[in-house]
Amino acid sequence: MRLAVLALSLLAWNAHAQSSLPAGWQCTGVCGWMAAQGDIGASPEAQVGYGFLSTAGSTVYGSSPLQLDPNSRGSGTETNGSRLLSPSFSLVAGETFRAHFNYASTDGKGFDDYAWARLVRADTGALVQWLFTARSSNSGTRNIVPGDVLPRDAFDPRTVLVNYDDYEFNTRDAAQPIDWTPLGFSNGSCWRSNAAGCGFTGWLTAEVQAPSSQSYRLEIGIVNWGDEAYDSALAFDLAGLAPTVPEPRSAALLGLGLGLLRLTARKRQT
Predict the structure, then answer these.
(1) What are the CA-CA distances from residue 23 to residues 38, 60, 85, 241, 248 (Å)?
(2) CA pair distance 184, 77, nearest whole angstrom
(3) 96 half-sphere exposure, CB direction, 13 A CA radius
(4) What pLDDT, in 10s, does the model give residues 77-92?
(5) 31-46: per-residue pLDDT in tens?
(6) Residue 64 near residue 84 (C-beta atoms within 8 A)
(7) Which among 6, 100, 229, 233 counts the fewest CB atoms within 10 Å?
(8) Which of 29-38, 39-48, 67-76, 227-236 is the least confident region?
(9) Over the chain, what is the mean pLDDT?
(10) CA–CA distance from 118 to each of 139, 155, 216, 222 (Å)?
(11) Which residues contact 166 (CB under 8 A, 6 or more apart)?
(12) Which of 13-22, 125-134, 139-148, 158-167 has the lowest mean pLDDT?
C-alpha cells in the first residue's frame, strides 16, 4: 500500500509538470510535452522543454509498424506502447529536416523494448526515411542504437545521426538509478541492479534531406516487449515545438497502478 501511495504521488506531481503537445499532433497512448527534468536535460535545440512518448500508463497495443522476429528477442512479442504523428509540414527538394531523440529504458535482455522515428508522406503515410531506432539490451550498450531493429540497408545511423560517432550509452544502476518521470512507476528502478542497458542514450540528432517538394509528417513510437513491466520512454525535439495548456493525466495515473501490479508479477516470476 505504501508503494502505491508513493507512486500515485509521483504521477500527481507529473500531472502538473507535463502539458499537451501543440495542436495537430495525434497521439495514440501516452505522449506530452515537458520541461527538461532529471537525466534527460535540454535538447540541442536549447528550448525550455521537449516532447515525449512512454510505455508507462499506455493501454494501446499494435502501435508499431514493424514486425520484429521474436526468436532473437527472448521469444517475446510487442505489448503496450505509444505512437505519435505530427501535423503535416512542407519541405522543398533538398531541404534539411532535423530532429533530436533521447531513448531511456529500465528494461533489458529478453525484454527488449524499442523506439523508432521516421519521416513519412503526409498524403499516404508511406515511408520516406527512417530517422532513429533504439532497443533495450545488455549484449553491448553500443548497439542500443540502432539496436538491430532494422536492417542496416534500411537504416544506417552513421549516415543519418550526425553525432553517432560520439555516442555512448549512459548506464544507470542501483547506486545511481535513472531519474526521468515519464518512466512512471519504473522510474528509479532497473530490471536488474547491474544491467548495463538500463539508462539513456543522450541526445542524438537526425538530419535528412527531403527527396522532393511535398508535405511530410514525423512519426514516432515506442513499445514494451515481452511484458508490460519496466517501462521505456523517448524524448524528442525539433524547431518550434512548444506546449499548450496543461491537462489532467488520468490515464497515466491509472497506468501507474497497473504498473505496480505488472512489476510485482514479473518479480515473482523471476
Answers:
(1) 26, 21, 11, 11, 17
(2) 22
(3) 10
(4) 899 999 999 999 999 9
(5) 999 999 999 999 999 8
(6) no
(7) 6
(8) 67-76
(9) 84
(10) 25, 10, 10, 12
(11) none
(12) 13-22
Residue position matching grid coordinates 493501454: 59
In the chain, the amino acid numbered 194 is: N
Give the whole-angstrom CA distance, residue 29 versus residue 252. 10
Percent of the chain with pLDDT over 70: 80
Does residue 39 contact residue 189 with C-beta atoms inside 8 Å? no
For residue 52, which of 12, 98, 101 has the smallest C-alpha distance? Answer: 101
Question: Cell numbers at residue 157, please?
Answer: 545511423
Contact 52, 28 (CB under 8 A): no
Among 67-76, 208-217, 226-235, the least confident range: 67-76
The residues, ordered by sequence, that sit 6+ positions from 145 with a Cβ below 8 Å of its Cβ are 103, 132, 133, 134, 157, 161, 164, 167, 169, 201, 204
Q: What gap in Å lies between CA 201 and CA 36, rounded to an integer? A: 15
Instruction: Check if the beta carbon of residue 56 is closer than 8 Å to that of residue 185.
Output: yes
Retrieve residue 269's grid coordinates.
Answer: 516470476
Q: Average pLDDT for residues 149-171, to the nearest whole number?
A: 94
Residue 228 · residue 79 · CB < 8 Å: yes
